[in-house]
Amino acid sequence: MRTSRVLAGAIVVVACLVAWSPVWAQNEKAEAKAVEAAKAWLALVDAGKNGESWDAASAYFHYMVSKERWDARLVNSRVPLGRVLSRELDQKKFMKDMPDVPKGDYVVIIFRSTFDGMPKAMETLSTVLEKDGTWRVNGYSIKNLQQK
C-alpha cells in the first residue's frame, strides 16, 4: 500500500515536470533572445548613437518618450559616466505581466556594470516581444551602487 502511494506520488511529480518542461524551455529561449536584443541596444547607447537607440526601442518606449527627450536624457545622464569598462549579466526574468505597461511577454534584465565615472552600477532593462516577433527594449535605468 505504501509503495503504491510513493509510486503514485512519483508519477504525479514526473507528470508535472513533463508538463512544465516546455514552458520552462520556452521561457529560457525568450530570455536568451531578449538578452541578445538588450546587448545590441546597449551597444548603440555605448556608441553614443542616441537616435538609433530610440529607433531600435519598442513602440511603447516611443510612446513614453520622444526622440529629442531621449537624446537629452542620455546626454545628461549617460554621457557623463564615460566609457563602459565592464558589463556582466546578473539576472534575467521572463514575465507575462508588469506594472504600468500593457500585458505581454517581457524579460527584465539586470547587468552589473562599471563605467569610467561610476565604478559600481546596475543597469536594468525591460524588453518586450513586439507583434512582429522582435524583442525590443521597453525601458532602461542606471543605478549607482557605490556607497557615498
How does this model look, in words?
With 148 residues, this protein is an alpha+beta fold. It has a single domain, classed as NTF2-like, domain 1 (Nuclear Transport Factor 2, Chain: A, Roll). It has four helices and four strands; from the N terminus they run ααααββββ. It is globular. Mean pLDDT is 86; it is low at 4-22.
List keywords for this structure.
47% helix, 148 residues, 4-stranded antiparallel β-sheet, alpha+beta, 4 strands, globular, Nuclear Transport Factor 2, Chain: A
SSE diagram, text form:
Blueprint (H helix, E strand, L loop, with lengths): L1 H45 L3 H7 L2 H6 L2 H12 L5 E12 L10 E10 L2 E12 L5 E10 L4
Antiparallel strand pairs: 1-2, 2-3, 3-4
Helix pairs in contact: 1-2, 2-4
